[in-house]
Design goal:
Nucleotidyltransferase, domain 5, single chain, 5-stranded mixed β-sheet
């Protein structure tokens, strides 16, 4: 066995093992709220799998990783990397941002792990980009360096969200009275869907229902509530704006990948949404973006592939 891999988010901690052949095996999802600390969840997973304790581990964490101390952004867990390695008896512990792990996974994705939305063809050896709405908005990229790839460890989800229509401008103006900064994550995430829905109902003077993000995007709710439908459509369009900006910034002619827990569940609705049209709507650079493919990542835990690569 090569080691343990884990994708730790705000709500769930996903664990698996990497066998001697480099394959990801024995995946399991644990609820973060059931554990006091990250090492408690790791211990529970290893006990449940009844395996010899690994000598190496690679963790993808939903927070910036800038030093030894790590505090998750939307989860009360925090830890010292060096102390966690000692407590778990590991010879090697790699800790990276969750979307750094997702970026590292991109060259390892097979055709069954992704679904193309719109046209375009990837350029071999060119930069790639990945972003994913879930509990937050993760953003990263993969830059070629000779025969190697260098993942970006940034926090692009907290860049300022731009408006591309009068309706979006009105929504963002309303949200600026509620938040000190309206980032892309404020609209392109689970909580962001609720923010969009609430702003749209307030603009139209309609009482807002207490919907969850899943209810807002549910086909039945969208069919019966026009503001849920508009919130979901605006979400897809705004995601196209941010994805197009990222593609231009990185020169991501290798493709732009949409990961996270929300978009794969939208199914065909996302494919026919304004996402791709908004992705390409960059004036003089429309043709440049039309050549770049966009994909929905259908692998449920792409970070595992990137972490398996880190373990070698």
């Amino acid at each position: 066995m090569r080691g343990l891999v884990a994708d730790i988010g705000a709500t769930n901690a996903r664990f698996a093992l990497v066998d001697a052949a480099g394959e990801v095996v024995r995946p399991r999802i644990l609820a973060c709220e059931d554990y006091r600390a990250i090492d408690d969840a790791i211990d529970d997973y290893l006990r449940s799998e009844r395996v010899e304790r690994p000598r190496a581990a690679a963790l993808a964490i939903a927070s910036p990783v800038t030093g030894d101390h790590v505090a998750l952004t939307n989860n009360p867990w925090q830890f010292s990397i060096s102390e966690l390695r000692r407590r778990l008896g590991l010879e090697r512990l790699e800790v990276v941002n969750d979307f750094t792990a997702n970026a590292l996974a991109l060259p390892r994705l097979s055709e069954r792990d992704r679904r193309q939305v719109g046209g375009g063809h990837s350029v071999a050896g060119a930069a790639m980009a990945v972003l994913g709405p879930g509990s937050g908005l993760g953003v990263s990229g993969l830059i070629p360096s000779g025969r190697r790839w260098i993942p970006l460890a940034g926090e692009g989800g907290h860049a300022t969200m731009p408006a591309s229509s009068d309706r979006e401008a009105a929504v963002l103006a309303l949200m600026r009275h509620r938040f000190d900064h309206v980032s892309a994550e404020r609209v392109l995430s689970g909580p962001g869907l609720v923010n969009l829905y609430a702003a749209l109902t307030e603009l139209d003077g309609v009482p807002a229902a207490s919907y969850t993000p899943a209810q807002i995007t549910d086909p039945a709710t969208r069919a019966s509530d026009r503001h849920c439908r508009e919130a979901t459509e605006m979400f897809c369009a705004m995601l196209g704006t941010v994805a197009g900006n990222l593609a231009l910034t990185l020169g991501a002619r290798g493709g732009v990948y949409i990961a996270g827990g929300i978009v794969p569940k939208l199914g065909p609705m996302f494919d026919t949404s304004e996402f791709r049209a908004r992705f390409e709507a960059k004036g003089r650079f429309r043709s440049y973006l039309a050549d770049i493919p966009t994909y929905v990542v259908t692998n449920p835990v792409p970070a595992f592939l990137g972490l398996a690569g880190l373990l070698g």
